[in-house]
Specification:
about 180 residues, about 50% helix, alpha+beta
């Protein structure tokens, strides 16, 4: 079994991911994109209006009000029963409308944001849509272009601290 990436040297981690300090080739990046799919969260099935409306009645307080309406109806107090049921239906309608407005807002935010990532492809720095990443990513950190491998967080384990890591990384980048 392979050691966790944070326990490996940077070179071992790169080899385990079948990449190099020059990044992936364009062909390899495309092959991985076809094999693994885009770098994005899978979206679940969207809920229908009736399902969202029905879910409004699952809340504990709503269930208590339904029980109260049933008790009120059983005791012959029809006026209270109608008021409670009207409030429950109005609450469910408002909750459903609010749910779909929030979902529409979320979709608008997704459409507005088009995150990109700075990567090394074929040894060249490029900016690509973040859905296509999967190799070395160039990030701005502490005013230094640093190479950080996205798939593991603590490659700098072999260094005493982050400053030493950043110095060594800066040397490597200047050598290019």
């Amino acid at each position: 079994m392979t050691d966790a990436y944070y326990k490996q040297t940077p070179q071992q981690a790169l080899e385990a991911q079948k990449t190099s300090a020059n990044g992936l080739s364009g062909q390899e990046a495309q092959a991985r994109a076809q094999q693994f799919g885009p770098n994005q969260l899978a979206e679940g099935e969207k809920k229908g209006v009736l399902q969202v409306f029905a879910e409004q009645f699952k809340d504990l307080l709503v269930i208590i009000l339904i029980i109260a309406a049933l008790i009120s109806a059983a005791s012959g107090n029809l006026e209270s029963t109608i008021v409670i049921i009207a409030v429950l239906i109005l609450n469910a309608i408002l909750g459903t409308v609010q749910y779909f407005k929030a979902e529409k807002s979320l979709e608008s935010l997704k459409a507005m944001s088009s995150p990109t990532a700075k990567v090394l492809r074929d040894g060249k720095r490029m900016e690509i849509p973040s859905t296509q990443i999967g190799e070395l990513v160039m990030e701005k950190l502490r005013n230094v272009d640093e190479v950080s491998y996205v798939r593991f967080a603590s490659v700098y384990r072999q260094f005493k601290d982050i400053n030493t890591f950043m110095e060594e990384l800066d040397k490597l980048l200047k050598e290019r």
